[in-house]
Amino acid sequence: MNIILWNCRGVTGKDTVSRIFNLIKTYNLVLVCLVETRADTQRTRNFCKKFKKQWDWAATPARGYSGGIIILWKKDIEKVTPICFSRHVIHLTISNNPFKPWIISIVYNGQSLEEQKATWKELDSIANIAGPWMILGDFNAIRTLEEKKGGQMNWRSGMKSNYFNSFIVNNNLSELKFSGPPFTWCNNQRGGSRIWARLDRILCNDKWLDDASYHQVSHLARCQSDHSPLLLKCWKQEYHNKKPFRFDNNWIHLPECHKSVETIWETEELGNPMHATSHRLHNLKTDLTKKCMGYSRNLEKKIKQIKEHITELESRECSYRSNGDIWTTLRPLYMKHQAYLRQHTTYWAQKSRLQWLQNGDCNTKYFHQMSKNHRNNNIILYIKNKEGTLVTEPAEI
């Protein structure tokens, strides 16, 4: 599924319309999100009439020469339902196999700090939704000083960044990795007055990352525009690369692990010492994979089972007919439950590649998020073949 986001700064110009049609044809788009359309209700209708009958649309008109959002989608998408409109945001749900239903929020944030605070408040109100959520748009704010080149940062710009970062952190959102120029906006002035900034981006929650784990964002050429179009490609993985062997730190607690190491290292190997060591390591990897693989993956099931057993015994202990023998049974269960929790935390901390772990910190939800971010960073977006051509299709990569 291919989606484009573009701050087109008006939809009435012939060059703008030509580029939109070119983007649709070139990238086989199914969803087109245009912000700062500068089009009132009638101009919006006239623009959308230019598209054939297989396209549908929803829009928020501009106020005077400011703002405006238009969303176009192909009718062969299973279902698109606009659910809420405001001056700066349009929310819609989209269902399209093989993906789960998403909520998408298209944002054109205001220039003033007060308008931006109102936008964050509006988005905060739906941030606890249960399903996949993606937010894309021109946020008119940067996150760090590195996202701007040229010009000066005043206190108001700093406040915008603070509110923007707080919104992202408080709602556990992630930014999608991108390829292309680092800045998405330029004022197109010359010399020392030229300014670049990254104002446009795509955010999502962890449920969206679960559903669309294979995706890529490209910052396309601005050409004569102030803003770069952002192209988002999402697909389901149709091929599976063989995963490399990784030692699970929880195996240290298993007798099978120690037995395998002891047995294989005591095996006599002939030939060069380096070759013998390599052969032992290979045999150890095979043996550990066979005997220990899956132990940590079953921890959640074990934790659930032992919690159910503890709940049952604690309920019996509270009854008038209970005796002191129940405590004798409960005590080792408590210890085993704590051990499983520590192992579960260790497993996800290792997957997220965190080298630190504070005592008592068992925030496995955070580790899940870090693991997904690393998986996203490991995706290869493009590669150059022998002919020097950039290849972007996943199967070809």
Kindly describe this structure:
- It comes from Dioscorea zingiberensis.
- This protein has helices at residues 14-27, 41-48, 113-124, 155-170, 206-211, 255-266, 273-292, 299-318, 325-351, 364-377, and strands spanning 2-7, 31-35, 55-60, 69-74, 79-85, 89-95, 102-108, 133-138, 148-149, 174-175, 178-179, 185-186, 196-197, 200-204, 214-219, 230-235, 383-384, 390-391.
- The longest helix has 27 residues, at 325-351.
- It is 38% helix and 20% strand.
- The protein is built from ten helices and 18 strands.
- Strand 5 and strand 6 (89-95) form a beta hairpin.
- The strands form four sheets. Strands 3-4-2-1-16-15-11 form a seven-stranded mixed beta sheet, with helices on one face. A six-stranded mixed beta sheet has the order 5-6-7-8-14-10. It has a three-stranded antiparallel beta sheet with strand order 9-13-12, with no helix packed on it.
- By secondary structure, it is of the alpha+beta class.
- It starts with a strand and ends in a 6-residue tail after the last strand.
- The protein has three domains: 2-235, Deoxyribonuclease I, Chain A, CATH 3.60.10; 255-294; 299-397, no CATH class.
